[in-house]
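ok new one. same drill as before - structure tokens go in, u give me an amino acid for every spot. 214 of them this time. try not to just spam alanines like last time pls lmao
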């Protein structure tokens, strides 16, 4: 029975290299492409939330922010669809989503995690409505860490360059933890700066410690 289970899960992992990244990329493409097309065919409403943009976006004009948001969603979603530079595209869309949360979906005021969690809804109840963008951001995270999978241009390029064997490489060290803190911490800098700074500092420590102990 144990051997049967191991055989099934081993094959599911192999199939998963092809299936789940593609399906995840496909649905994320649809969501962000649709959002980008609505902006492309609509009017710039960023002037209504101009004072809510986080640094450094608040240094840009609303027209430029609108342009960046529109074409960011369109270009990066297309990159997800074909699996081209998937990690970069997914991370960029996380940043775009985080900016959207800060400017539109984040509660105006909160003093505790329980109060903040009241904003984890779909309809606006006066305490924020960041449920959908948070789910989108979390769905993009696996693509940052894992990549686009085997059904992607990224994998084809690795094969052409003879580097596809490196896909199976796993390095577990402090630097790996440091990159994890970067992926999560940088978007948090826009959302909750104290949390973001904490994670970025931890990432720097993870990168520096191995060099210091040599």
């Amino acid at each position: 029975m144990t051997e049967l289970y191991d055989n099934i899960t081993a094959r599911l992992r192999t199939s998963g290299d092809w299936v789940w990244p593609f399906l995840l990329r496909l649905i994320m493409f649809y969501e962000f492409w649709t959002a980008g097309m609505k902006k492309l065919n609509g009017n710039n409403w960023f002037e209504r939330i101009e004072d809510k943009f986080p640094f450094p976006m608040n240094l840009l004009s609303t027209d430029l922010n609108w342009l960046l948001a529109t074409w960011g969603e369109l270009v990066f979603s297309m990159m997800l669809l074909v699996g081209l530079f998937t990690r970069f595209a997914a991370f960029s869309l996380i940043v775009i989503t985080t900016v959207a949360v800060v400017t539109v979906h984040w509660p105006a005021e909160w003093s505790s995690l329980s109060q903040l969690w009241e904003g984890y809804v779909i309809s606006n109840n006066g305490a924020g409505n960041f449920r959908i963008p948070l789910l989108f951001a979390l769905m993009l995270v696996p693509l940052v860490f894992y990549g686009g999978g085997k059904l992607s241009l990224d994998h084809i390029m690795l094969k052409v360059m003879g580097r596809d064997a490196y896909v199976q490489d796993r390095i577990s060290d402090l630097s790996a933890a440091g990159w994890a803190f970067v992926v999560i911490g940088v978007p948090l800098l826009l959302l909750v700066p104290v949390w973001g700074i904490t994670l970025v500092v931890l990432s720097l420590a993870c990168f520096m410690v191995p060099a210091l102990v040599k």
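The radius of gyration is 20 Å. and btw The chain has two domains: 2-168, 170-214.
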